[in-house]
Amino acid sequence: MSLKNREIHLARRPDGLPKPDDFRLVETEVPDIADGQVLIRQLYMSVDPAMRPRLTVGYELDQVMAGGALGRVERSKNPDFAEGDLVRNQLGFREYAVSDGRGLSKLAPEPGIPLTAYMSVLGGTGFTAYGGLLEIGGLKDGEQVFVSTAAGAVGSVAAQIAKIKGCYVIGSTGSAEKAAWLRDEAGLDAVINYKETPIRQGLKAAAPKGVDVYFDNVGGDHLDAALASMNTLGRVAVCGMISGYNNPGARTPVYNLSNIIYGRMNLRGFVATDFMHLRPQFETDMRQWLREGKIKWRETVLDGIAEAPHAMVGLMQGENIGKMLVKLSEEEVPA
Amino acid sequence: MSLKNREIHLARRPDGLPKPDDFRLVETEVPDIADGQVLIRQLYMSVDPAMRPRLTVGYELDQVMAGGALGRVERSKNPDFAEGDLVRNQLGFREYAVSDGRGLSKLAPEPGIPLTAYMSVLGGTGFTAYGGLLEIGGLKDGEQVFVSTAAGAVGSVAAQIAKIKGCYVIGSTGSAEKAAWLRDEAGLDAVINYKETPIRQGLKAAAPKGVDVYFDNVGGDHLDAALASMNTLGRVAVCGMISGYNNPGARTPVYNLSNIIYGRMNLRGFVATDFMHLRPQFETDMRQWLREGKIKWRETVLDGIAEAPHAMVGLMQGENIGKMLVKLSEEEVPA
Question: Quick one: which of A167, A134, A129, A164 has its CA closest to A150?
Fold first, then answer.
């Protein structure tokens, strides 16, 4: 058969901002599958901010990287999977993947919902926003909410869920185009372009009633700004701290932490596996909201696995609106 | 009658570390009391780290300061209080106080327990340690616990409660004398003198099994050290951040906050009024522990109201072991 496969290896650990040549495109052959295995042809892979720390500690050098992906079963010697099945998996950064079925999750797509939605609003990204806001942030209807990187894959969903819950929602973002989308399409109440207005000053002006819940994707100056505006018993759901990801030691200082004492605030870090019990309710709610047009989403899709390093670099520079994806093969290619 | 009263005013807001002449001793006359009022002769007043931020924002200039105190009712025109009653109150920094009874709490002292204990282990200090550790920190028996300023009024109680709960307890302190007391008297498992060993390095060595609960009185480098040693699902009960109190803006940077994401940690600021429902159980538990000799405590008592500014300055420089008190009058003086 001799099918060609291409995959992305980590060539060296980035010093600061990742560069395309920190990665290497490697061509291999797709192996035959053994009994119990399936061969997956990947359709889309996800590129996430959380991958950045793993470039420093986590991913192995000169090995194929890993990440969320959606593929179709191309061949199966596993009775649980049929050829043509759509499977969500963690075997991104490669065009073809072999699996014994563990960690694969079959997807039954719904008419009218594009496949990529299962990688974003209906995928781990949307679920992270949902649980982070409602469970970790303990959001109550009508509260004052601040979401950083609000035009990003997670932030844009968190901000719109807060709107659905009747909250006053402030978002921060780094470009005029994204700010316009957040205001005009996603329907946020206030948007701060932190490249035009210092975030602390912008947030003070945008939050006359303070902030009850801050959904943090940034850390550093954004977290300091939030801490300076938080109300008593405020909650910070810490999803990510991208501001530090490209600094030495992956950290930026935070100065206003002592505010949490008299404000009796709660800062809580989380990953989506902390609230897996919410997954069924999330699926129900989100499909409903999508049908009702209450959640808008954007995707930035680069074409072909050779673009994966650029997707990673671009993500770190805020070049995406919404979810950053790489298309790995045409769905039209016969399974 | 013309009783002389002396009180401490805030003369100017400290620039950094408070100095004695930031305060002023003012002599006044004790006023007559009206119907419904009581005159309190103060016996002891409390000097607490939490007063430092109030010197910057909170206390008014050229006015008498306020703080926890224990006094005896000297004269009463209030049917709820009799002459000779012991009353806990928030009218410290003066020798005599007039009150309409609001905010006074009558104290029935127990034989064998010195009056000062009601200002420390059995007072707000002990209660802060109790609730902060058990309720905010969610301490579970047998966990790994780190307490900063462990020889202080709150820290020393928190550390010993953790020992009573079967935990492995690490304390930090700033002198060899305090370290010896913590090790030999209070029975901690490990003690770090942060003036001899950098706190991060000291904690790494002292906590081979990591830290599940950090009771934070310091912030800054101590919090960073804790964050670098915390276990997954670790909790930080943030009682105070004394490291920043004497810096401009009352803040010190914290660098390792991003650790809370993958560690899914919880940082929670609190004040004792957050868990008033625990007060009866605290009184029962703490009296029991004192009778059993399970809680040791120390006090640093300065004599006379003129010493109150020195008590404040000394507290900020770690000159106290345990609770810092100022004795305001001799109990022997006839009521």
Answer: A129
pTM for the structure as a whole: 0.90
Instruction: Give the domain extent around A279.
Output: 124-291
Q: Decide if A213 contacts A132 (C-beta within 8 A).
A: no
Amino acid B101 reads G
Contact A267 B260 (CB under 8 A): yes
| Chain A residue numbers touching B219 (CB-CB < 8 A) | 257-258
- Out of A241, A258, A266, name the one closest to residue B261 (CB): A241
Same domain, A271 and A323: no
Query: Where residue A110 sits, what CATH number does that domain have?
Result: 3.90.180.10
Contact between B90 and B103 (Cβ < 8 Å)? yes
Domain count, chain B: 2
Is B237 within a domain? yes
Paired strand residues for B26: B7
The answer to whether position A84 is within a domain reads yes
Nearest to B219 among A241, A258, A265 (CB): A258
Report ipTM (2 d.p.): 0.87
Question: B247-273: per-residue pLDDT in tens?
Answer: 766 678 999 999 999 899 999 999 999
CATH code of residue B130 = 3.40.50.720
| CB-CB neighbours of B71 under 10 Å | 29
Nearest CA in chain A to B239: A261
Say which residues have a Cβ less than 8 Å from residue A170's Cβ, sequence separation at least 6: A144, A145, A146, A147, A188, A189, A190, A191, A192, A203, A206, A207, A211
Specify if B191 maps to a domain: yes
